[in-house]
């Protein structure tokens, strides 16, 4: 392993205009409700699966949770001023389902909706466009108790919640994302058990995939119909976490390993959403394990409700082999090997390889295979920040990461990819899921003891780069 130090992956980079990015390119920052809001039991909010998961011993670093997080619920106006000061035109945030619809059923909670109405008001007053994500992993615990995403009914409950949110905000919010990273919700939550709700059953996870996408389609249908009926502007999308799956060699085994990884990680979501069909090779692979997608008549037509934009969350590209280091081609269960090949590349504090050129490759591939406009809805890096004696954070490693990936976006545009925006992850340090507060992705530092926010050097570089690019 080559876990990079801040000194090893850092260059002195001055802010300058990014060639190839037009004046109307969208610049933003992104957050998620459970990671920043806090106020976990205030104003009618009920527990989500993450509130429950954080209480399971050993599942989150130091047993930490999002009860307070960045206290954004109480500090929202201050945070919006901070966002506006960065010069971004867009703020991507998620709505907390258990805050808007406690328990996941029934009428909307007026106090919960009021918070998001005030947030939109503040953004409008500062000239920042709201970009709403309906679901960023905080399923109401009552719905998990009733079966969670492996249960078909959860898709209908999601559509009902989406309707409540859209009815309240649709006249003032144009940009709507249904789901954030359904692969994580399904696979990490139900197959691998490393995120909430912590189940470990591949069959349940694959059922969750379908019901997440069905919920996306049902919500999309409703918003499309209502936008047309009310004369609302609507830009509708879904956000997927995507990378590249490259075979280590040109062997058949490695090519098959990359195919499986790409199929389960990307095409299982992209194909039904964009093309109205699940990839046949992956359906066959799952059938060989006795697993079927629970598709009912009409589902795929709903799932493939037309989209306006594809949100892309990118963190790394990956090299795959179909052979173990010992030379085996099947695992202990007799299934083909799909092994991640570790490379001697710079890494973030998450131990993720840094592969900006893979972002270019991904965006060009998405343009060729799917033809949807894209926006980078998340990209960023955790590094081990050091606060200097004068309180500044000289995070040249993060600045380098951002610069390299924004350049990769410009390269993709030069190759014909219709990429329309870039949102840095994250606005500020926050609750990083199973890692608790141990990993810092923010371009703004949060002192969790005092809740003081401090611009890191990366935030200043991002602000200045946006200004110079817009005015080039």
TrEMBL record:
Which segments cross the bilayer? none
Q: Which Pfam families match?
A: Glyco_hydro_1
**Molecular function terms, GO-annotated:** beta-glucosidase activity
Keyword Hydrolase belongs to the record: yes
Keywords, alphabetical: Carbohydrate metabolism, Cellulose degradation, Glycosidase, Hydrolase, Polysaccharide degradation
For this protein, the record's InterPro entries field holds: GH (IPR017853), GH_1_N_CS (IPR033132), Glyco_hydro_1 (IPR001360), Glyco_hydro_1_AS (IPR018120), Glyco_hydro_1_beta-glucosidase (IPR017736)
Top-level EC class, please?
Answer: hydrolase
Q: What is its EC number?
A: 3.2.1.21
Q: According to its UniProt record, which reaction does this protein catalyse?
A: Hydrolysis of terminal, non-reducing beta-D-glucosyl residues with release of beta-D-glucose
Is Hydrolase given among the entry's keywords? yes
Enzyme active site? 378
Family stated for the protein in its record: Belongs to the glycosyl hydrolase 1 family.
Protein name, entry field: Beta-glucosidase
Q: Which organism is it from?
A: Streptomyces poriferorum
